[in-house]
Amino acid sequence: MSAQIVTVSPSDTAQSAARLMLETDVGALPVEVPGVGAIVGIITDRDIVVSVLARGLSTSTTIAEFMTVSPEVCDERDDTDTVAERMRERGVRRLVVVNADHRVVGIVSLVDLSAGGAGKEKWQ
Predict the structure, then answer these.
(1) Which CATH number does the domain housing residue 25 bear?
(2) Number of domains making up the chain
(3) Beta strands 94-98; 104-109: pairing state
(4) What is the reported pTM?
(5) Quick check: is 69 in a domain?
(6) How do residues 50-71 score in pLDDT, each as one tens digit?
(7) CA distances from 36 to 12, 67, 69, 97, 123 (A)
């Protein structure tokens, strides 16, 4: 799991999100309501390319206009088999990892699962 918690706001732009991804070397960012802490979406580098650039939209397009709303999540206490199964069932490559208070604590990707191997490991 990537525990580097970097989020963006729905009102941020595609360009600012792309810069943040470059600076932090991540390919996905949870979208958080500022001051509330609620995760309302997720964007990926692919979203920026396909939903913004390929459609000829401005780089000043707000994240709210192209984010995936209500991203798939897993609990930080879930084991790798559970996480892998959820990804397979939902057809996603990443899950936002939340704690018992539903606060984001990281993102787990297919790469994390393949690097860590299958098993019953927890995300803590």
Answers:
(1) 3.10.580.10
(2) 1
(3) antiparallel
(4) 0.81
(5) yes
(6) 999 999 999 999 999 999 999 9
(7) 16, 18, 16, 17, 24
